[in-house]
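User
Class, as today's exercise, I want you to study this protein, comparing sequence with structure tokens, and judge whether sequence predicts the tokens.
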Amino acid sequence: MSTDIEQEKRALRAELRERRQLLSDAQRAAAASGIHDQLDALVDAHSAASISCFLSATTEPGTRAFVTAAVQRGIRVLLPVTRADGLLDWAVADEEGDVAEGLFGLPEPTGEVLGPIAVNDVDLMIIPAAAVDLTGMRLGWGRGYFDKTIGSMEKCPPVYAVIYDSEVLDSLPREVHDQPVTGVVTPTRTLTLSPARH
């Protein structure tokens, strides 16, 4: 494992995290509204009856209104629950949307927890990212949860990462374990980047 690549990723994550923290409340609200519209259209385009998504933290593009609305539309939404062993459990989102602080201080659902293989049944995965490049390579936040999940799935559905417009980059450093995504959803557009992945 190249330490140069690790250092490059670390520096890039720090820069992206700082950029996200500088956004105003108004910018965040506008982004969340755009994300909601884009994700609704993506779900419809895939005729998805069951999806996985995530509960956005303060600095992430907002997904919570979308999750609530999807549940109200009758879509089954699985939300990730982090485990100490590096795997993800899943919980079914409900209309109450009760949230607790997870392992890394991130928001997680409080409902009944299902095991890691529960996600194998979804039609579409919507995951967090720090950035994605034009080949579909995703830079996560360094813990590897989603790379492990996607890499272990027998039949992986389309995977879209939710990021801000400025986080679609020309290229990203990559390591062997890094998993590409099908595309990205930003507040203004949805891009399919590596359709051949599935």
